[in-house]
Design a protein that fits this description.
mainly alpha
Length: 260
C-alpha cells in the first residue's frame, strides 16, 4: 500500500509553505517533548495561529477541508500545551482524552499523522504517571499501617493487589460502557422507527395533497368552462335584445310617420 500523502504536497502560496514547515517542526518537538521546560513549542504554536489566520485571509488560500485540517492540528498542539500545565496526571490524562489529532499526514514522508503518534505517546506517558502515583500512594499507606519498610515480597504482593484492583475497575468500566452502548443502540433503533413512521406519514400526506391538488384543478377547469358558458348565453341574450329594439324602432317609424 502506498504511503499516505500530506495535506498539500504542492502549496500554492508562500504563507502555506511556511505554515506547513512550522507545523511539521512543532509536531517533531511535541513528539520529543517530556516536560514544560521546553519553551520553543509554545512560541511556535502561537506563531502557527497567526499564520493560520493570515492563510485564511489569503487570496490563494487552499480548499476548506485543508484549512480545517490545519486548524485541527493547531488546536491539538494547543491542547497538548494546556494539558501539560495541569497539576495532576489524572487531569492531564482526562484532558488528553478530549484532544483530536490530525487525520492526514502533514508531509509526504509521514506514513501516519504525527499528531496521532504524539497523542498516543502522551496518553501512555500520563497513564504511566497515574500508575506511579497510585503505587506510591499504596506503598505509603501500607508503610503507615505497618510501621516499617516493606520487603520485596510484600511489595510484589501489594503490586499484584493494585493491579488486580485496576483490572477489576477496568472490567467494571468496560461493562458500564457496554451497557451504555446497548442503551445507545436501543435509542438509535427507536429513533429510526420514529423517523420511519414520520416518513411514512409524510409520504401519505404528500399523496393526499397531490390528490387534492388534482381535484382542485379539475374543479377549476369545470368552473372555468361554466363561466365561459354563462358569458356566451349573456352575449346572445344582449344581441337578441338589441335586435328586438332595432326592429321595434323601424316599425315605430313606419307606423307613425313624421308629422309635417
Amino acid at each position: 500500500m502506498a504511503p499516505a500523502s500530506g495535506l498539500d504536497p504542492t502549496p500554492r502560496s508562500r504563507v502555506e509553505v511556511k505554515l506547513v514547515r512550522l507545523l511539521s517542526r512543532c509536531e517533531v518537538l511535541a513528539a520529543a517533548r517530556r516536560g514544560v521546560g521546553e519553551w520553543r513549542l509554545e512560541k511556535y504554536v502561537a506563531a502557527l495561529e497567526v499564520m493560520l489566520l493570515e492563510l485564511k485571509k489569503h487570496p490563494s488560500k487552499p480548499a476548506p477541508e485543508v484549512l480545517n485540517e490545519y486548524s485541527r492540528k493547531v488546536d491539538f498542539l494547543k491542547g497538548i500545551l494546556e494539558a501539560e500545565k495541569l497539576s495532576t496526571s489524572s487531569e492531564k490524562a482526562l484532558a488528553n482524552q478530549f484532544l483530536a489529532p490530525g487525520r492526514t499526514p502533514t508531509t509526504p514522508k509521514e506514513r501516519i499523522p504525527a499528531t496521532q503518534t504524539v497523542h498516543l505517546q502522551t496518553k501512555a506517558r500520563y497513564t504511566g504517571e497515574m500508575r506511579s502515583e497510585l503505587l506510591d500512594l499504596e506503598e505509603t499507606g501500607l508503610r503507615k499501617r505497618t510501621g516499617f519498610p516493606l520487603d520485596e515480597k510484600q511489595s510484589a504482593t501489594d503490586l499484584d493487589m493494585v493491579l488486580q484492583h485496576h483490572h477489576s475497575l477496568q472490567e467494571k468500566l468496560a461493562e458500564e460502557m457496554l451497557h451504555l452502548a446497548r442503551n445507545l443502540k436501543n435509542n438509535t433503533l427507536v429513533a429510526q422507527n420514529v423517523i420511519k413512521q414520520d416518513n411514512q406519514t409524510l409520504t401519505h400526506s404528500l399523496k393526499l395533497a397531490d390528490q387534492n391538488f388534482e381535484k382542485l384543478k379539475d374543479e377549476s377547469d369545470r368552473l372555468e368552462q361554466h363561466a365561459k358558458k354563462s358569458v356566451n348565453w349573456l352575449l346572445w341574450l344582449m344581441l337578441i335584445v338589441v335586435c328586438f329594439i332595432f326592429i321595434s324602432m323601424i316599425l315605430f317609424i313606419r307606423i307613425f310617420p313624421k308629422l309635417r
